[in-house]
Structures are given as structure tokens and as C-alpha cells.
Write a structure and sequence with these properties.
The complex is a heterodimer. Chain A is α+β, with helices and mostly antiparallel strands. Chain A is 29% helix and 39% strand. The longest helix of chain A has 13 residues. The chains are: A alpha+beta, B alpha/beta. The complex binds thiamine diphosphate and magnesium ion.
Chain lengths: 173, 611
């Protein structure tokens, strides 16, 4: 219980298994905005073959008491099947994908961008004489770092998916 | 989707229209009454209602009142209240009632009309995004887009409204769904796919709670609306548990009646206008048992000073209520009634002996606090003397008790919002659950009259009184016409202080007595107003008239508005100003303190920000 009194802000990656019905995403988003919780990232897609249920991954932040409150509030929504706090429950993998457009004609910028992309294992998925589009998958901070490096080299546009996350090992939601 | 989306011709031959299917599902859900108001989008439902007799429709005069009436019906019976309104303005008018039911955890199913499915999103006539608007106003809502879903959704809505922590549920019904044939599906036997609230307590948590309580030196039970919602057997269990343990009991505004208020273990209501003894017991407690309450800010006062030395047990059916405002040591997720039964058993099973010596000392302290007599007021008995509002409520209580003893008819009290509401909570004493309906969470002026109407529909022979303020009553006064139509003998007991008294009190305390817009200018003549609505008007302007008016009101078989002209300057005490702690309470003028400007103990700028 003592950790509930903790005032330090922590980040939490929460996965929510929901009934795939209309309005369910609005309910989750409305809950966050209505109660003043943060959304750092949010992804949603059907995850079962019959598309009956979707998985929402939310990255949020708050004090331990707020995070507990967010989970309880999510859990009491009628179409919510299960809520898992991946950050708290044990080791997990969290990944997102980004498409990053760099517009550069100068030879130096182009070679530098390619060299860094190689180091970061970003793939070139589109190239013209004036631009590249890189595709990159990884943890949020890795993507952030790469985007920052591209900035002086002609970063023009970024499109990111937000985080998808899953527990390591045999544990399931 | 388990059903087929398209119906074969043979299916259609056997099926009824959506509206008929809707009524069939309502009947299976044992609905007896619908509070509603018609309009274009719901005409098929009204047509189906016309052609049957099993379900009664009560025509209100405003959709907000329909929801409050359904709330009154629900709170006084424990059943789900049902509302029917048309699309667009019908639905938006209902929103205040829905939020009210959400805040106070009242089970309501509200059927709203909607434009036909092919017009949704086209800004059609009387179209509103009802599910969008009511999403944060309901526990859950549905838009029925397929005829095959209709019956299932109705059954599910009732299940959701009444299960776990109850609340309002909206079913938005496009007109084509009501007209087109639809298949019927019976109430499902299987559990809901995703919503299965836990009601049985965890044994280990109960044992922990009992161990804390047995060793407590200064324990308190803080009981709330969850005990009422759990049903009368929970109130009964609360009494048994309190008697078994000798622990003092205080109640929230929502919980009044769960514990008999004339019992010596009852401390009265706690919180902003709670009793001195209740708040000091909370503040000084070493173990607190929160039974079905939610640590609302009206109850806790300043959070960092709330019961600072207590170890807290919190029983709640809604896990999100636990550790929301106040971190607790022993959370118990359960229905209050089941938890209380388990606690009674665990108390007997726990071999430890109770610290009765400490408890006796605690009671001695409590009696000393009680002796302060915080609700004391001075009523002149001189002929022509002005009526104190507290005295008016006290006499109303005493005379209704006599009336109840004489006639055997139970008394139900509803209120509007303001000082009169707090005086009703303080001076009217409740012995039974489900007899007290007040808008606690939302504080909705205009709640009381339609709520009393709903109660009277559920209990035709009972005495139903709305304790009102002259400002609040005007917010749903049109329901006097509904009373007339259905010959509902509701009594409206107005404490007329010609002010929005609660607003005036705050202005006196916090805004230098600048009474900005809180005077009730140009009031109607309530006696003639009653007359115009086919009721009976009465008035008491001085103390010698009060009892006669109350007696006449109780004897009158028709609806009554009793205009009780009371002291305009009276304030509601005790009071914990916003942002203050329980032990920084202000007592009334009888205690030599009163609401002298700047006297608000513990009042900070921070407190001023709070409402
Ligand atoms: C719909 C609504 N609007 C405004 C308020 C704010 N408010 C709370 S009490 C009150 C005054 C009520 O006056 P009255 O009904 O005369 O009761 P009194 O306090 O005088 O007993 C007001 C305006 C409210 N609670 N509800
Ligand atoms: Mg008034």
C-alpha cells in the first residue's frame, strides 16, 4: 500500500482487451480526457480471427495511485474484457513503427542519413533523388533518437503507429 | 453477431415490429411503469403502448422530470426505473437526469428515439448524437443498428443498469428499427461476455478488516449509499453488525435510513453539514470502516487532514472507488450486504477479544461531543413569531410520525437542493432505507418534485413529501400538472426564505455578504400556483400557523403546495468550509460562534477555489 502514497510519476503500458463494438474506442478516450489522465500513445486493432475483440494499448503516466485508478476505471467499462499493466506485471516487449521522410539533395546529408539508418536498422522503403522514406521498428526511445538525428539532415515528416505491447514468456492478457 | 442479419420471409411472418419486440422485452424484465414524453421518433413505441395494458405510461411535462421520476421510483423500490423520450431535444432534455442517476448510482434504463439509420449523421430533423452526448452521462449506452440486436440489447441494458454499481443506461432506437420486424430473444441465461462485477467479498480481506476492528480503540462505521443500493437486507445486516460490535455509526447523505437515526449508536450525518460528533469521531478515529461510501469531497473536507490517524477499511462494489481519493489499508470489493454478513460471521470466528475498555472510553468522549448539541436552534414561540426552517422540518418530522402511527402509511421524503435539503437531512430522521431521495452527487435543483412523483407512482398509498426551496421548486414546477393528471397526492413543502439560501450563505461567508443574484425576486404566489395546477395551496407565515398548515397538508387527499415562510437570514450549521478539515467545523450562533465574516476556520484561498 505504501507505494500508493508515492508521488513520483511513472509510465505505464496498459493493454486492454475490449469487445469490438462501435463506440468502444470513444469510451476509452473519453475516460482519459474526462478524468484528466495522460495518453502518451494509443493503438487499437482487432486481434481475433472473427474480429470479435480488439486490443487497445495505452501508454500513460501518473502517480501509482492514478495508474491504479486508470486500470480500475478501464476495467469497469462494460465492453472491457481484461486490463493488464504490462509495465508492472513483468518483462514485456513494447514496439512501434515509424515512417520517416527526409528531404535532402546535398550529398553529405544523403550519405549521413543512410549511414545512420543503417546503424539504427531502419529500412529505406522509398527513395527519390531528393528524398528518402525510412521504415523503422523499435522501442519508442530508439525511434525518438533516430528522428532527432534526422532533424538536421532534412527531416520533413514523421508518421508513427504508437506502441503495441505484449508480455514476455508464456503470460497472456 | 450470433443472429442472422437478414430475416427470411418466414421469420418476418412470425415476428413483430421492433416497437412490439421492445415492449415484449420490457415485460420480460418486469417493467410496470414508463415515465415518458412522446415525439416523432418514438411514435411507433407509443402506438405499441396504446395497444397493451401490461405497462403503464406516465406522461411527464419535461424529459428531465421523467428521469428524476424514474430515479424516485427506483430508489424507493430497488427496481430499475424506465424512461422513454424522443430523439434530439427529448434526449438532450434527459441528460441532467442521466448524470444525476450516474452520480448517485441509481438504476435507470432510458429509451431514446433516433432518426432512421439511413439518416444518422446527416443533421436530420431532431437528430442529436445521443450516444455521443450521453457517453459520459451514463454507465453504458447502446445504439441499436440492427433489428436482430434489439431484444438482446434491451435485456443487456437492464442487466448493466442493475448489476454491480447501478447506474443509468441509454438505448438509442432509430425509427426504422422500431418499425421494421424484429426477432425476439429471451433474457439470456448465460453470464455477460465482459461485464461481471464481483459481489462476494474475499475472505482474507474480511478477516483482516475484522482483526483491525477488534483491536480498534476508536472505531467508526462510515456508511453510504452502497448499503441502500444493496437492498433492505444490507441495512438489516448493518444494524446487526453495529449492535454486535458496539461501534458508532455515521452516514453520508446518500446512506440515510440504512441505520435507524433514533438509535443511540447513530451519530447523524457526516461531512460539510454533518454533526459535530460525527465529524469529530471521523477525525479522531483509529480504525474506519467505510461501508459503501466513496470518500466524496463533501464528506472528507481537506484530504490531507482527513481522519489522519485512522487505518481504513473500504468496502465497495466498484473497484474504481477504492484508492481514488483516499488510500486505504484494507480494500474489500463486494456488495455491502454480502460483506456485512461475512463480517458478522468473521467477527464470531475471530478468537481475539474486542478492546471493550477502549471502546467505552471512546463512547464517553463521543457523549461529550454529543452534549454540545450542535443542531440546537432557537425558535420563538411568540404569536406572530418568525418560523425557523429547522423548526419547520422538525415539526414536519414529528407530525408525519404521528400521521404514520395513525394511518399506517409510510412516509417518503424527497428534496430539492440547497439549505432546505441539508436541514431535511439533519432534522428529519429516517429509520428505514429507501425512504429518502435526494440528489447527492450532482446536486440537481428541480430533482425533488419529479422524484416524489415517481415514488408516489410506486407507492400510491404512501405519504410523499418534497421538501423544497422556493428557487429549486420552480425548476420542475410543471410537474404539478402531472400530479393533477394522475391524481398523485404529493405534498410540496417549501421552506420559502426568498433566497437561494445556500448561495446566499456562501456569499455571506466567502464573498463579503455581496448577495449577487441570489435574491428570489418576483416569486409566484405559491398558493395560487397550486390552485392553478388543480392542487391545494397553503401558507404559514408565523409560528402559530405552522402546525395547523402541516396537519392540513397531511390530511389533504390532493396534491398540496405548502408555502412555509421562514427566516430569510438563517444559515445551515454545522459547516465545514471547503478546504477545511473535520475539526475546523463552524457551529451555529447558539454556540457563540456562527458565521461571522472571516470566522471560517481554516479557510484558505485554496478553499475558496473549491465549490
Ligand atoms: C440546476 C442547479 N443550478 C444551480 C445550482 C446551484 N445552487 C445550489 S443551492 C442553490 C439555491 C437553492 O435555493 P432554494 O431552492 O431556494 O433553496 P435554499 O437554499 O434557499 O433552501 C443554487 C442556485 C444547483 N445546485 N442546481
Ligand atoms: Mg430559498
Amino acid at each position: 500500500m505504501s507505494n500508493l502514497q508515492d508521488t513520483a510519476i511513472r509510465s505505464a503500458t496498459i493493454s486492454v482487451l475490449v469487445e469490438n463494438e462501435s463506440g468502444v474506442l470513444a469510451r476509452v478516450i473519453g475516460l482519459f480526457s474526462g478524468r484528466g489522465y495522460n495518453i502518451d500513445s494509443l493503438t487499437v486493432a482487432p486481434v481475433e480471427t472473427d474480429r470479435a475483440r480488439s486490443r487497445i494499448n495505452v501508454v500513460t503516466s501518473g502517480t501509482p495511485m492514478v495508474i491504479e485508478q486508470i486500470k480500475a476505471q478501464l476495467d469497469r467499462l462494460v465492453p472491457v474484457h481484461r486490463v493488464a499493466d504490462l509495465t508492472q506485471d513483468g518483462p514485456h516487449i513494447a514496439r512501434e513503427m515509424a515512417l520517416i521522410k527526409v528531404v535532402a539533395q546535398a550529398g553529405h546529408a544523403r550519405t549521413e542519413a543512410l549511414r545512420l539508418a543503417d546503424a539504427f536498422r531502419a529500412r529505406v522503403v522509398d527513395a527519390t533523388t531528393e528524398s528518402f522514406v525510412f521504415e523503422m521498428t523499435g522501442q519508442t526511445d530508439k525511434l525518438d533518437a533516430f528522428v532527432d538525428l534526422m532533424r538536421p539532415l532534412g527531416l520533413a515528416e514523421v508518421s508513427r503507429t504508437g506502441v503495441a505491447a505484449i508480455a514476455r514468456g508464456t503470460r497472456v492478457i | 453477431m450470433t443472429q442472422t442479419d437478414t430475416l427470411s420471409p418466414s421469420d418476418i411472418a412470425q415476428t413483430q415490429s421492433g416497437a412490439e419486440i421492445l415492449l415484449r422485452a420490457l415485460k420480460e424484465q418486469e417493467v410496470e411503469v414508463i415515465f415518458g414524453y412522446p415525439g416523432g421518433a418514438v411514435l411507433p413505441i407509443y402506438d405499441a403502448i396504446f395497444q397493451q395494458n401490461a405497462i403503464r405510461h406516465i406522461l411527464v411535462r419535461h424529459e428531465q422530470a421523467a428521469v428524476h421520476a424514474a430515479e424516485g421510483y427506483a430508489r424507493s423500490t430497488g427496481k430499475v426505473g424506465v424512461v422513454l423520450v424522443t430523439s434530439g431535444p427529448g434526449a438532450t432534455n434527459a441528460v441532467t437526469g442521466l448524470v444525476d442517476a450516474l452520480m448517485d448510482s441509481i438504476p435507470v434504463v432510458c429509451l431514446t428515439g433516433q432518426v432512421p439509420t439511413h439518416l444518422i449523421g446527416n443533421d436530420a430533423f431532431q437528430e442529436a448524437d445521443t450516444t455521443g452526448i450521453t457517453r459520459p452521462a451514463t454507465k453504458h449506452n447502446y445504439l441499436v443498428k440492427k433489428s436482430a440486436d434489439l431484444a438482446r440489447v434491451v435485456h443487456e441494458a437492464f442487466y448493466v443498469a442493475r448489476s454491480g454499481r447501478p447506474g443509468p443506461v441509454v438505448i438509442d432506437l432509430p425509427k426504422d428499427i422500431l418499425i421494421n420486424p424484429a426477432p425476439y430473444t429471451a433474457k439470456p441465461a448465460a453470464a455477460h461476455r465482459s461485464y461481471r462485477p464481483q459481489t462476494a467479498p474475499d475472505g482474507a480481506q474480511i478477516a483482516k478488516a475484522i482483526s483491525l476492528l477488534k483491536n480498534a480503540k476508536r472505531p467508526v462505521i462510515y456508511s453510504g449509499g452502497g448499503v441502500i443500493n444493496s437492498g433492505p437486507q444490507a441495512s438489516d445486516a448493518l444494524v446487526r453488525f453495529a449492535k454486535l460490535t458496539g461501534i458508532p455509526v455515521t452516514s453520508t447523505l446518500m446512506g440515510l435510513g440504512a441505520y435507524p437515526s433514533n438509535d443511540s449508536q447513530f451519530l447523524g450525518m457526516l461531512g460539510m453539514h454533518g454533526t459535530y460528533e460525527a465529524n469529530l469521531v471521523m477525525h479522531g478515529s483509529d480504525v474506519m470502516l467505510n461501508m459503501g461510501a466513496r470518500f466524496d469531497d463533501r464528506v472528507t473536507g481537506r484530504l490531507n487532514a482527513f481522519a489522519p490517524n485512522s487505518r481504513k477499511i473500504h468496502v465497495d462494489i466498484d473497484p474504481s472507488s477504492i484508492n481514488k481519493n483516499v488510500a486505504v489499508e484494507v480494500p474489500v470489493i463486494a456488495d455491502a450486504g454480502l460483506a456485512l454478513e461475512a463480517m458478522i460471521e468473521a467477527w464470531h470466528a475471530d478468537p481475539a477479544t474486542q478492546n471493550t475498555a477502549a471502546l467505552a472510553e471512546w463512547w464517553a468522549q463521543i457523549e461529550a461531543w454529543r452534549a454540545v448539541n450542535c443542531l440546537k436552534f432557537r425558535q420563538t414561540t411568540e404569536k406572530g413569531g418568525i418560523i425557523k426552517p429547522q423548526h419547520a422540518i422538525q415539526r414536519l418530522y414529528e407530525l408525519t410520525r404521528e400521521h404514520e402511527a395513525k394511518t399506517g402509511k409510510p412516509t417518503f421524503i424527497s428534496t430539492e437542493v440547497g439549505q432546505h435539503q441539508m436541514w431535511a437531512a439533519q432534522y428529519f430522521r429516517f429509520d428505514k432505507p429507501n425512504r429518502w431521495m435526494t440528489s447527492g452527487g450532482l446536486g440537481t435543483m428541480g430533482y425533488g418534485l419529479p422524484a416524489a412523483m415517481g415514488v408516489q407512482i410506486a407507492h400510491p398509498d404512501a405519504l410523499c413529501i418534497d421538501i423544497a426551496g422556493e428557487a429549486s421548486i420552480l425548476m420542475n414546477i410543471q410537474e404539478m400538472a402531472t400530479l393533477a393528471q394522475y391524481r398523485l397526492p404529493v405534498k410540496v413543502f417549501i421552506l420559502n426564505n426568498q433566497y437561494m439560501g445556500m448561495v446566499r450563505q456562501w456569499q455571506e461567508l466567502l464573498h463579503g455578504s455581496r448577495y449577487s443574484e441570489s435574491y428570489s425576486e418576483a416569486l409566484p404566489d405559491f398558493v395560487r400556483l397550486a390552485d392553478a395546477f388543480h392542487g391545494v395551496g397553503m401558507r404559514a407565515t408565523s409560528i402559530d400557523e405552522l402546525d395547523d398548515v402541516i396537519r392540513a397538508m397531511l390530511a389533504e387527499p390532493r396534491a398540496v403546495i405548502a408555502d412555509i415562510c421562514v427566516d430569510q437570514t438563517e444559515n445551515c450549521f454545522p459547516m465545514i468550509p471547503s478546504g477545511a478539515a473535520h475539526n475546523e467545523m463552524i457551529l451555529g450562533p447558539e454556540h457563540g460562534t456562527g458565521l461571522n465574516k472571516g470566522n471560517a476556520a481554516g479557510l484558505t484561498d485554496e478553499g475558496l477555489v473549491l465549490v
